[in-house]
Amino acid sequence: MPRKLGQSMPPEGGRGRFFGMDSRVQRFFQWVRGKRVSVIGIGVSNTDLIGMLQEAGAKVTAHDRRRREQLGQALCENLEGQGVRLELGEDYLEGITADMVLRTPGMPFTHPALEALRRRGIPVTSEVELFFDLCPCRTIGVTGSDGKTTTTTLIAEMLKESGRRVHLGGNIGRPLLTQIREIRDRDFAVAELSSFQLLSMRRSPDVAVITNITPNHLDVHRDMEEYIGAKRNIMDHQNAFSRTVLGVDNEICASLAGQVRGRLWEFSVEHPVENGAYLGEDGVLYLAEHGRARKLLHREEIKLPGLHNVKNYLAAICAVWPQADEDAIYNVAVEFAGVEHRIELVREKDGVKWYNDSIATTPTRTIAGLDS
């Protein structure tokens, strides 16, 4: 069946509520029926999550520091129309009585209100943590200070191009937990994971990718050490059969190699690697296994501009091989036009090209965009 980029393979089997569903997922939805669930943070992603929990029969309370007029009357009435109880304003965390609490990623795990809930024996988790607890299929997670979204999207596209059924989420797309009933064990779940999401994770993906680590979000994290620890947590719970992909041109990433629990794959635009992918002096992208390298494509064939996007491709190749074949990797390279707000060509007029690179909110990203 021909497929356009961005289109996954159709689901197999029936559409019944529990048809083919993993037993852990079944048990969760059976458990959550009638339970009191507090969701902290009413954002775009949590709105979908609230709807899923409500549909599953949970008694949902949504908490947000913003007042009704700040959230919008229409949103509040829509939630209340579904039977959701709202706790808004400065006292939004007061008096929580729940069987489970789902925090928004932007809320520190160490927040005093959350610590008080844990002392009372109330489970405190997040949408992403719960998804990784329940997910029945192979998981690929991507984090890093730069390149997360593009690399995550490239991984999903390469797998789809190889005929795999892919569920994309985490810090982009639909919340993965809201897709859990659609996921079968032969599928792939690909997640972009921020430091806030990773800080309290208890499970690691089967394939963990760290693109790079540079100072970022230090207005939220206590210090650089905590930020690095959050990023490292993506691989800390792996096993011998897992794969970790590190961008070894970055000094901090390279220093993590000795802490990898599973199989280490590396990517570099500066030198060859033993296992992984690298850019050769001849401008060719190579895939290496046990020191034996094969040519994949020339960097000039990649539709996305810039050396930083070559790095993104190398990271994605390490994550998907051999589940995605050489043809799929090549097809995505020559066809994929990129992600919004990332060196996105807006218009060309009178020989001048106008780009939207509004995601470049750090010096590293801005320099990479200008170098392109």
Automatic annotation (TrEMBL):
According to UniProt, the name of this protein is UDP-N-acetylmuramoyl-L-alanine--D-glutamate ligase
Segments forming domain Mur ligase central? 142-320
What compartments host this protein? Answer: Cytoplasm
BP-aspect Gene Ontology terms: cell division; cell wall organization; peptidoglycan biosynthetic process; regulation of cell shape
Q: What GO molecular functions are on record for this protein?
A: ATP binding; UDP-N-acetylmuramoylalanine-D-glutamate ligase activity
Q: Which principal EC class is assigned to this enzyme?
A: ligase
Keyword entries, A-Z: ATP-binding, Cell shape, Cell wall biogenesis/degradation, Cytoplasm, Ligase, Nucleotide-binding, Peptidoglycan synthesis
